[in-house]
Amino acid sequence: MNELNDEMKKMLAKQLPVQATSSPSGVPDIGPKRSLRLYDDRTLIYNENTGGQTLQNIKEGSKMAVVVIDREALDGYRFVGTPELFLTGKPFDEALAFAEKTG
């Protein structure tokens, strides 16, 4: 992923992002991700709270698309990449702290 600019960061902080994955057979899964946020200038992160289809698709190698839209401004961004699952380490610890802070 390229570096996120200030406009992308502002929109991600203000608007509700929506993510999409697909199953190995191509069945799409799409939904809002309230916890999706900027991790660093090149990375998005979210907390997987349901352990549902999105998580299964990631485990099975799905790419992920994220869209964030400002409907009033008729503007938005799409981000596409390969998700990485963290069960330990710094990103995991920071995600736990985020969950504790935000409930």
Structure report:
There is one protein chain. Strand 5 (64-70) and strand 6 form a beta hairpin. The model has no long low-confidence stretch (mean pLDDT 92). The protein contains 3 helices and 6 strands. It is α+β, with helices and mostly antiparallel strands. Helices cover 28% and strands 30% of the residues. It has a 4-stranded antiparallel β-sheet with strand order 2-1-5-6.
Write the layout of secondary structure elements.
Layout: H1 6-14, E1 18-22, E2 28-32, E3 37-40, E4 43-45, H2 53-59, E5 64-70, E6 75-81, H3 90-102
Antiparallel strand pairs: 1-2, 1-5, 3-4, 5-6
Q: What is the structure about, briefly put?
A:
This protein is α+β, with helices and mostly antiparallel strands. The protein is 28% helix and 30% strand.
- Would you list the SSEs in sequence order as H and E? HEEEEHEEH
Could you give the distance between the termini? 29 Å
The helix tally amounts to: 3
Number of strands: 6
**Category from helices, strands and their pairing:** alpha+beta
Task: Catalogue the unreliable spans.
Answer: none
Proportion of beta-strand residues: 25-35%
Silhouette: globular
